[in-house]
Specification:
single chain, 5-stranded parallel sheet, 8 strands, TIM Barrel
Length: 347
C-alpha cells in the first residue's frame, strides 16, 4: 500500500458513537430572514411553481421567507413581487437594492437618485434594502476611485432607509481566510481553489479589518437606520468583535445565514453569544429552500448532538471540520426563529 494520498481523496469516516437527533419541525415557527429565490440562488424557485415552494416551507415549518434578490436590480425585484408576493402575500418579503453602475453617469447626484429609487421600490412593495459585498470591494465612483463602505456621500441612502422603516441587510467582506494569502496555512484552501473569484488579497483589495472598521463606522453614524449584518455580522470568526458592536449600536442586528459551519465549531462561545444577544439574532439560511437543509439548521440550534456534518455535500464546502449542536433554551429559540424578524420587519 502506497503511503501517498491526495488530500482530495482523503475521506475519513469517524468511529465515534454519537447521538443523531431527527428534528422534523422547529420548536417555533420560523422566518427565514435571508434567502434567495432567483435562478442562481435558492434552487431557482423563480422557474418553479410557487405552490411547490410553499409546500416545502410548510413541511419545514417556515411561515415566511425573506427574498433578497431585489439587491440584484429593480427588474428582479419586480419579477419576484409579481411571481411570489402576488400569489402569496403573507408568506414572502422582498428587499430592493442599489444600482451602483449609475454612479459613473450621475456623479455627485448618485446618492440622491438612489434614495429616490428606494422610495419607489418601497411603493412597489419592497420591505427592505439589500447591500452586497461589492460595496467596499468593487464599487467605484465617477472618478474611478474605490468607494468605502462608510463613504459619507452615501448618507442620503441610509437616511431614507431609516425614514422609511426599511431595514438594511448588509454583507461586506467574507470569511477572513478569503483575504489571507493562498498558502498551505489557509483553512479555506480547497474552497478558494474551487472558487478563485472568492479570493480578495490585499493588494489590490482592502484588508479585511479595514472593511469591517468601515462597517462599524457606518452603523454608528446612522443610529436611526436598522442594519442587519449578514452572515453573523460579517465576522463570525470573532464573536467578541461582533458582540462589542452589538453593545455599542442598538440599531445593529445580524442573521446566521450560511454560517453554521463556523458557529458549530465553536459551540461554547456560540451558545453564550446566542444567549447574550438573543434579541438581536435572526434566523436565515442563504441556501436552497429545501426541508432537509432547514432541518439540519434546526438540529444545530436545538440539540446537543456532537461532531456532525454541516452540509450534505460529499466534500465539506467551507473546511474539513464537523460541528456541534448549541442546545439553545426555548426562550432564545423563539426569538431567533421568528420574534426578532417580526420586530425588525414590522410584521
Amino acid at each position: 500500500m502506497s503511503g501517498d494520498l491526495s488530500l482530495k481523496d482523503y475521506k475519513p469516516v469517524s468511529k465515534l458513537e454519537t447521538s443523531i437527533s431527527e428534528i422534523h419541525e422547529p420548536r417555533f415557527p420560523v422566518i427565514d430572514a435571508h434567502n434567495h429565490l432567483g435562478e442562481t440562488y435558492g434552487g431557482g424557485w423563480i422557474n418553479r411553481p410557487v405552490r411547490e415552494l410553499l409546500d416545502v416551507m410548510d413541511e419545514a415549518g417556515v411561515e415566511l421567507l425573506v427574498d433578497l434578490d431585489g439587491g440584484w436590480g429593480e427588474e428582479v425585484l419586480h419579477n419576484h413581487l409579481d411571481h411570489f408576493k402576488a400569489q402569496s402575500p403573507k408568506r414572502f418579503v422582498h428587499f430592493g437594492g442599489i444600482d451602483w453602475e449609475q454612479w459613473e453617469s450621475l456623479g455627485n447626484g448618485f446618492a440622491a437618485w438612489a434614495a429616490k429609487r428606494l422610495q419607489a421600490q418601497k411603493a412597489r412593495g419592497a420591505q427592505g434594502l439589500k447591500v452586497w459585498k461589492d460595496l467596499g470591494l468593487r464599487v467605484k465612483d465617477d472618478q474611478g476611485a474605490l468607494v468605502k463602505v462608510d463613504d459619507p456621500r452615501l448618507a442620503p441612502i441610509w437616511d431614507i432607509a431609516g425614514e422609511l422603516d426599511l431595514p438594511v441587510v448588509i454583507h461586506v467582506a467574507d470569511p477572513v481566510a478569503f483575504f489571507d494569502p493562498l498558502d498551505p496555512t489557509n483553512e479555506r484552501w480547497e474552497e478558494i481553489h474551487a472558487n478563485p473569484d472568492w479570493h480578495f488579497p490585499s493588494p489590490p483589495f482592502p484588508g479585511f479589518m479595514e472593511i469591517m472598521n468601515q462597517l462599524e463606522a457606518l452603523i454608528k453614524r446612522h443610529p436611526r437606520t436598522i442594519f442587519i449584518g449578514a452572515h453573523v455580522g460579517c465576522y463570525v470568526e470573532n464573536l467578541s468583535w461582533v458582540g462589542a458592536l452589538l453593545d455599542q449600536a442598538p440599531n445593529f442586528y445580524l442573521d446566521i445565514s450560511a454560517r453554521i459551519a463556523e458557529l458549530g465549531r465553536q459551540p461554547y462561545t456560540a451558545r453564550r453569544f446566542f444567549i447574550d444577544y438573543a434579541d438581536r439574532i435572526l434566523f436565515g439560511m442563504d441556501m436552497a429552500a429545501e426541508a432537509a437543509l432547514y432541518r439540519l439548521h434546526y438540529r444545530f440550534l436545538e440539540t446537543d448532538d456532537e461532531y456532525f456534518d454541516y452540509s450534505f455535500e460529499e466534500a465539506p464546502p467551507s473546511g474539513r471540520w464537523k460541528i456541534y449542536g448549541l442546545y439553545l433554551p426555548e426562550q432564545v429559540l423563539e426569538k431567533v426563529y421568528g420574534a426578532n424578524a417580526r420586530k425588525v420587519l414590522r410584521i
